[in-house]
Amino acid sequence: MKFLHAPWRWSFLSRPRGRRGCVFCGAVEENDPDDLIVYRGDHNFVILNKYPYSTGHLMVVPYAHVSLPDGLSRDASKEMWSCMLRARMALEKCFSPDGFNMGMNLGAAAGAGIKDHVHLHVVPRWRGDANFMAVTGDTRVMSYDIKEVTRLLREEWTK
User: Fold this and answer.
1) Potential cystine with 99: which of 40, 54, 125, 134 (Cβ 3.0-4.6 Å)?
2) CATH code for 21-158?
3) Which residue intervals of the chain are DSSP H helices?
4) pLDDT tens digit string along 2-40?
């Protein structure tokens, strides 16, 4: 097995578990102009995944800290769906992907990395993005600047 070093992930991997709080609640409370939030709605926000499956991997996250979509208000649920559709269209215009994966992982057994705060993934996909690096090398190559992707998506969102 070959190793591709990714030192930027160390702060995520080495952070104390359970003491930092929810990464989504923290992201929205910080209100940092350099954050990865693309859009802030009334009930949800849209944020780029810091450790994405592919370029432009967005997540629609409710402000309400609930673990299941059943805990969301009707308005939050409607806005979540609307944000998902809008996210897909923005990604389409910015990056012209060949397809999308969209959905939720509910609970640790379903693959939820953050199981206590429900969120919806919008992942652009391209033919060949499961290439030999990911399949045989167990490595993903991300050839983009996340700040530039954030800027492009924010611009597209406001159109």
Assistant:
1) 125
2) 3.30.428.10
3) 10-14, 23-30, 74-95, 132-135, 146-158
4) 556 666 666 655 655 554 689 899 888 877 777 899 999
Please state, as a whole number, how many other Cβ atoms lie within 10 Å of the Cβ of residue 49: 18
- Name the one residue in this structure whose structure tokens are 């992982």: 105
Q: Which residue has the higher pLDDT, 148 or 17?
A: 148
Tell me how far apart the alpha carbons of residues 72 and 74 are, in angstroms, rounded to a whole number: 6
Q: Dig out the tokens for 66 from the structure.
A: 């609930």
Residue matched to tokens 């996909």? 125
Known active-site residue 5? no
The catalytic residue among 43, 57, 117, 119 is 119
Q: How is the beta sheet containing 37-40 ordered, strand by strand?
A: 37-40, 44-48, 58-62, 120-125, 99-103
Whole-model pTM: value is 0.79
Is residue 44 within 8 Å of residue 60, measured between CB atoms? Answer: yes
113 in helix, strand or coil? coil
- Give dist(CA 85, CA 140) in Å, integer: 26
Q: Are 47 and 84 in contact, with CB atoms under 8 Å apart?
A: no
